[in-house]
């Protein structure tokens, strides 16, 4: 059994944990949009203007802060003017990236903005750099955000929207190193400057432009982008071509060619997965360090706008739809990621799980009129109190909470904490498959009121929710907290995620 002490100084607040670290991603991929968010106005499934309301209700319970759309790889073949105007007059298109299926463009700009309004989420639009033009993206910004009288404003009003929307977040392309154009870093950086120049601030709508950044640990790509806006070691504020730089990282247990099953895996594959998940700490540290050389004031944000697990598709489903089940293992990948995100709160501004509905590490799965909340959904819900909270450093002292996995050391205990509005939230994960952990929460510099806790676990790592068993993995009250002179003690079961919440005094 592992023994651990988590020292938390309640009176020393760290950087704010941006609520946008709990962001989401919805691509025209498989059944994420069509059949997920969008069922159409004639559907017997309850909807508002074609948007599926049970999905909206589920996501509103997470306080979803932002939603990234329309891709992903799809963004760089999407031409936004095909998705406006009367739906029966919109041209069809072929989704060449994902399944080579035809789409009718019934879900477009107005439908996406209506979805964001229903969700209470900020829109994050990824523009087409790969096959589009500077003018096309510039006009999209104008169409959405400009007031007064201009060609794009008149077009928007003709399509039924008088007032402009507020759209802060704009992605300058997606994965330009790969599906977004197979570009060199230098060429992509030049395009980022060019496109960002013509993505204008209209009125008081100030854009947060996010340059298409690196895959995994390609720190050279990040350096090439940062060189466009500052110089090595400069103290001056970086030029404002873009305000954020993206990076993508997916967790797998095998190779890209054989990622493994989402539900049929052994303990060794589980531990390889968790070791892969913890690599995100090193990757974020590497990109942050490069950015520090050019932006020591940390005014430019790091944006992890694609992350999550990626498994082989479920048997019998379209391989281009990336539909996978979601187990307790996926939930622990998410809880570990969030602890790491919180530690990087000073530089990491946004993160977007891939993806929200029916694709990869989804929040919800739909099948006809059935809706299933995944184990990963519950981690987001249990952790939502961290959004826009002040981080609290957790100094974790452990014995026996590490194991060798391949050529890496896996820490089997993970923790983070924050305080907001007089409430302390502590998140704890035990990644060990067999051994519980005796935890002492050594709370210093303040006191707390009566604490409550919830736990997410199951009998097996492979446990998951289905329409027939929708609550196989769900949060339950945890009554194992004991008050001591130091703070609290508890026994954290194997393969479990637990949150402790208490008023601060």
From TrEMBL:
GO molecular function: alpha-L-arabinofuranosidase activity
Superkingdom of the source species: Bacteria
Protein's name according to its UniProt entry: non-reducing end alpha-L-arabinofuranosidase
Endpoints of the signal sequence: none
Gene Ontology biological process terms in this record: L-arabinose metabolic process; polysaccharide catabolic process
Alpha-L-arabinofuranosidase C-terminal domain ranges (all copies): 305-496
EC number of the protein: 3.2.1.55
Alphabetic keyword roster: Carbohydrate metabolism, Glycosidase, Hydrolase
InterPro entries given in the database record: Alpha-L-AF_C (IPR010720), ASD1_cat (IPR055235), GH (IPR017853), Glyco_hydro_b (IPR013780)
Gene3D superfamilies for the chain: Glycosidases, Golgi alpha-mannosidase II
Family: Belongs to the glycosyl hydrolase 51 family.
Family annotation (Pfam families): Alpha-L-AF_C, ASD1_dom
Subunit composition and interactions: Homohexamer; trimer of dimers.
Swiss-Prot/TrEMBL catalytic activity: Hydrolysis of terminal non-reducing alpha-L-arabinofuranoside residues in alpha-L-arabinosides
Organism: Streptomyces montanus
